[in-house]
Structures are given as C-alpha cells and as structure tokens.
Amino acid sequence: VYGDVQRVKILYNKKDSALIQMAEPHQAYLAMNHLDKLRLWGKSIRVMASKHQAVQLPKEGQPDAGLTRDYAQNPLHRFKKPGSKNYQNIYPPSATLHLSNIPATVTEEEIREAFTKDEFEVKAFKFFP
C-alpha cells in the first residue's frame, strides 16, 4: 500500500520480526509513518528504520533460506512507473473502505451482503453519483 516491497526476511531467531526492503527510501518512510504503533490483532506493531541498507538473499542450504522472499521482479508493483497516480492515494489505516469500478447494476444490498456473509459489520454505506 505504501510502496513496492522488494524483499522480505523473517528473522530466524525472532519469528515475530521481519526486515522489509522497499523499492525507494521514501516508500519505507511512508510505511513507518503510517504503520508504527498501529494495533494489529490486539498488539501494537513497531515499524522503524533498519541499520541494514538491503535485505541479503541467503545462500543455498542456509537454515533461514525459506524465510526470505524476493519480490523485485513481481509484476504487481503499483509504484514502478515514475509519477504514478498511486502516490495520490496513500492514507493511514482506516475502518472506511472506498470501492470503485462497481457495475451500475450492483445494489447496496448486494455489497452489504458481500461483507456481512463473512461476518464483517457494515456500519454505514454511501453510493456517490
């Protein structure tokens, strides 16, 4: 949401911690700014700058080899184009969702049902013209 993730390494001796390498430093800053101290599953998460400049890929056969993933060539990166409009849509986490590209034939009831069938509560709903 805040940038293109290049690599992720879950720490071998501390599996509740990870190093996440973003494509650009300002993307890492956005993630830190919006996610540090956020409550997730009842716990406050910490997001801070690492002393490491890059997440190193493990050598073949190392015990932590399965804990590191490289996403540098992933085609799903949203920010790879210079001047991407995705930078205009960066906000802190919120309980409000913005849905778009909904066919005109879909009703409010159908959208509410899509969420409530999985036991999510819809507190308010509004279609924009």
From TrEMBL:
It comes from the Eukaryota. Pfam families: RRM_5 (PF13893). GO terms for molecular function: nucleic acid binding. This is Polypyrimidine tract-binding protein 2. It comes from Pseudolycoriella hygida.
